[in-house]
Specification:
The protein is of the alpha+beta class and about 250 residues long. The chain contains nine helices and nine strands. The longest helix is centred in the middle third of the chain and has 15 residues.
Amino acid sequence: MHHENPPEEIPQIEKPRTSKDFFLPTSILIAGVLIAGSVIYTAGKKSGNPATQPITGTNPPAASANLAEALKTGGRDVVLGDANAPVTFIEYGDYQCPFCGRFFTQVEPQLRDEYIKTGKVKMVYRNFQFLGTESTNAGAAAECAKDQSKFWVYHDELYRAEVADGQENNGNLNRNLFISLAKNAGFDVNAFTSCYDSNKYVDQVKKDTAAAQAIGVNSTPTNYVNGQTVIGAQPYAAFKAAIDAALATK
């Protein structure tokens, strides 16, 4: 892994994982579970089934055998926080998912202040970019940011842009925006542009997404706290409880 200087002076470290047939047809990608209290986006047919509701503390049965191996950090993972922190928090997200945006704005600031800056938790963000081409392209742009050791800065700017926009698949996550964010963040813009224009990481993003699906991820955000799931943009208290429980075993 590679170390980089993070946003808000939280220590970081650096990861990559192709499949053009992976994505479900757009017609059966759920446009958010439009049920009162819903906090996730899921891949599949729209349904009011309780399985689409927030789930805490359980792992998908079919994925259990491979989950521990899949959740090991390495490769192109970029770790936010102390690499030796006792608790690992992994988010599988989509840059267009409004519930990922909610998690970013309502949960992540407290998570960083209380647990990541204090060395108790390290955080990793992984691609589950399933909401279309804009999501895939945003994921590829963020992978290019890793090449300049600025992933978390870029991750934050992508979510700020999408949260401000508030709509999916409307064309705002585009080349001009990606380059503008890189420029504003002090990147080597020529190198970033070359990386993005070459589609260097498009297949990587698709591979990451397929790998996530293989362990049972089918919604965003799907979070793992030392291997235990906390699914959806739940209130901060739900994540705090899961983290404190994990810390109590250390």
